[in-house]
Amino acid sequence: MGAAVNSAPAISVVIPLFNKAAYVAEAIRSILDQSLDAHEIIVVDDGSTDGSAEIVKAMAAPKLKLVSQANSGVSVARNRGIDEASGDYIAFLDADDRYQPGYLAGIAGLISEFPEAGVYCSAYTSFWDDGTRLVRRMKSARPESAMLVSDFYRAWSKGTFTYTSAIVVRRSLLDDPALRFAPGQTLGEDHDLWLRLVERTTMAYLDAALVDYRKGVVGSATQSGLVLTILPCYQRLHDRLASGAIPSHLRRGARRLLASHLLNIARTHMGLGNLGQATAFVADRRAMANPVYFVRTLLALAGMRMRSRPRA
Q1: Which terminus of the chain is more exposed, N or C, with fewer CB under 10 A?
Q2: Is the pLDDT of residue 5 over 50?
Q3: What fold does the segment set 11-218 form as a domain?
Q4: What does the pLDDT read at residue 221?
């Protein structure tokens, strides 16, 4: 893992909370049980109606702060947490996820080893209530290794290796109003920020699954929402590519990631039997920027279309 930490960084953990009474205490306890103490824990209750806020109040833990607001969405809640935070680094833990005991120490090691970075993250584990667990990590990384991610776009286009609850950001970057979570979006609002951040700073990554991502939660947009059209964050990625705003060394990877998004949407439509819509996304010229995935999707679609033709 990362180098030993001489002076522990001040990491504030922000938890957006909306009707997660069944899980929020476990999320908070996972922070309190860290081998390295958090600078503070800020829970932003976004108008919960299921007693979630009362559970947080009853915990009365040191460094735990509850902030309440009218229901405004997860992006507004996270942004409010950023404004309330006093640490030099900010972590974002969803109220139904949890840290493994070494997560904050692992991030502190990354900060010590790669002080030039602005975003720090780890691998993670998706888990379900039936006991199923699936580790998500960077395929090309050596297990337990620490590294700088020179081209986040290219790495991300090959598969998910981190996510919001496993990410920590240098606070000074978030002082820029343009680098905040996009209000009013229920899917991709977090990706939107990560994409814009990696265009301005470097990401450091620890290939250890130190965060647990709870799957199958009823009412969660990320768990239940099918992506059937291009998400706003990827439309904005396209716009930045078109305008030349993305640094030159990242453009090829950004095009590849955008292609992967289009092809993923095509695959979703294929799974639903919407072959016309799937064809439209495969036919989008931008989808060709990930050639291997494009050919595989094109062949799969062609096979489905042949099988769907009525027999003579």
Answers
A1: C
A2: no
A3: Spore Coat Polysaccharide Biosynthesis Protein SpsA; Chain A (3.90.550)
A4: 52
